[in-house]
Structures are given as structure tokens and as C-alpha cells.
Amino acid sequence: MAVRSELGSAWLRAISSTTCGTRLDNGSVRVNLCLRLGLPVVSGYKCLCGADVSQLGHHGLSCMLGSGRQARHSAMNNYIRRLFQKADIPAIKEPAGLLSESNFRPDGYTLVPCSQSCCLSRDVTFLTQFNDKKRADHDRIFIGIHRAWPP
């Protein structure tokens, strides 16, 4: 179980600071604990997307209409961009028009060629895993790095 792993409960020891962005409001703490412990989060209802939402609230982690999914994605995308900046590699977020034949827009793109005169594009995807007791074990974060065309 992910909670038993070395860093599985590290968020409980985080210093609560608004300046550092580590302060959680009461609702966030309640939902996180309910998901971790497999307790009811909400009353069952029908989502705007048409899916039935159970009391455990798992649907909100993956619903296309939910704000939580986008917030996690944006936070990770910003974090990766800051890592590139610390390494003095200029990068931009969500560049448009890289691939004219499709609507695909990567989450980020380096502005300086890294190897073989190619820049790197990246895409971040979250996948929430649940164990057999319907507890949220962990989020898996997939970060795809692809060689892109020269800038």
C-alpha cells in the first residue's frame, strides 16, 4: 500500500505555509483523508457528465468536467517548467501550432535544442490508482518526453 511507503504520508509532515503553497484548506484535508481511508466523501449523485458518482468520490479525480484534474495537471506542468528554468534551459508551456496537421498541443517545449539539433516536448498525465478496498493508493504521474522538430 502506498501509505506504507517511505514518502506515502509525507504530506502530513509538510509545513503549512501560504507563501510556499503548502497550506491546505479544511475541505482539502477532509477529502484527502476520506480518499486515503476509503470513507464516504460525498452523497451519491449524478455528475453533469452523466456518470453516477458514488459516495467514495473517485469520479471527481478523473471527470473531464472536474476542476481537480486540471489543477493537478497545471501544478505539475508549472513545476516541470520551473525545473527547466533552474537548469537554465528556456522552455515554454503549452505551445500552439507545433503540429499543423493535428490539434495536439504538448504541455511544454524547450526553446534550445538539446541533442541532435532537436528540442524536447513533454506531456504530463495523471492516473489515480485504487486498491481492492477502494482506497486511493496513489497518483501515478506519467511524463512523456519526445524529440520535437527544430525550433
Key traits:
four-stranded antiparallel beta sheet; two-stranded antiparallel ribbon; 151 residues; alpha+beta; 6 strands; globular; 2 helices
Q: Could you explain how this protein is built, in words?
A:
The structure is a single chain. The chain has two helices and six strands; from the N terminus they run αββαββββ. By secondary structure, it is of the alpha+beta class. The protein has one domain (2-148). A four-stranded antiparallel sheet has the order 3-4-5-6. It has a two-stranded antiparallel ribbon with strand order 1-2. A hairpin with a 5-residue loop joins strand 5 (119-130) and strand 6.
Briefly characterize the structure.
The chain is α+β, with helices and mostly antiparallel strands. The protein is 21% helix and 23% strand.
